[in-house]
Amino acid sequence: MNALALIPDSRLATAATELVRDTTSDLIYDHSRRVYLFGALQGRARGLAFDAELLYVGAMFHDLGLGEKHRGSGRRFEVDGAEEAAAFLRAQGADEDAVRRVWTAIALHTTPGVPAFMEPEVALVTAGVEYDVLGIGYDDPAAVDPGDRAAIVAAHPRPDFKRRILEAFADGIAPKPDTAFGNVKADVLRHHVPGFVPGDFVTTIRDSSWPE
After folding, report:
1. What is the tens place of the pLDDT at every residue in 100-111?
2. Which has the closest alpha carbon to 127: 55, 5, 39, 10?
3. How far apart are CA 30 and CA 11, in angstroms?
4. What's the predicted TM-score (pTM) here?
5. What is the dihedral of CA 175, 204, 117, 135, to 10 degrees?
6. Quick one: DSSP state of residue 7?
7. Is-contact 20 60, C-beta < 8 A?
8. Residues 66, 188: Cα–Cα separation, whole Å
């Protein structure tokens, strides 16, 4: 099987590709395509019935919230990306259930331990992200065949990817550091932003306005 043939050949997928290609860097575009492909392959391996178009849109839009236009939003970048995807889908005539699934897939893609128990499109966006960014499943050929992986990386390369994606995360989140409270992106800011002090859950409880 040609792994790249898993990319939907549809009007919706083409429009998503064009929008992301025109508005993001090569880094984010190639990463997003890999996320879809690695997620779709894992879905097939698990026997999951997923909507390829919705998984594709979720994967392609999942990091759009890192872009410069969203850096003053005050919202988590995941929510900004989810809102972009929702607007795109509505403009394309998608129904609200499709919008909800894609919104949720993007909003939760940095929340470990939850998406795997939700709809396949939600679970597989996160699975694709975890495979490409964290290497979760990399050593399991039953999840993604090494030959398929090589073909995907040849089409969508990863030059210096670890350093560059961490810098992209930092650039997108540093202008709104409070949005990293309680999530994995606090680790990014701690490594990349001098003087960053992450919020502390215990301190927040202890210092709340509630009297004891």
Report:
1. 999 999 999 999
2. 39
3. 20
4. 0.96
5. 50
6. S
7. yes
8. 13
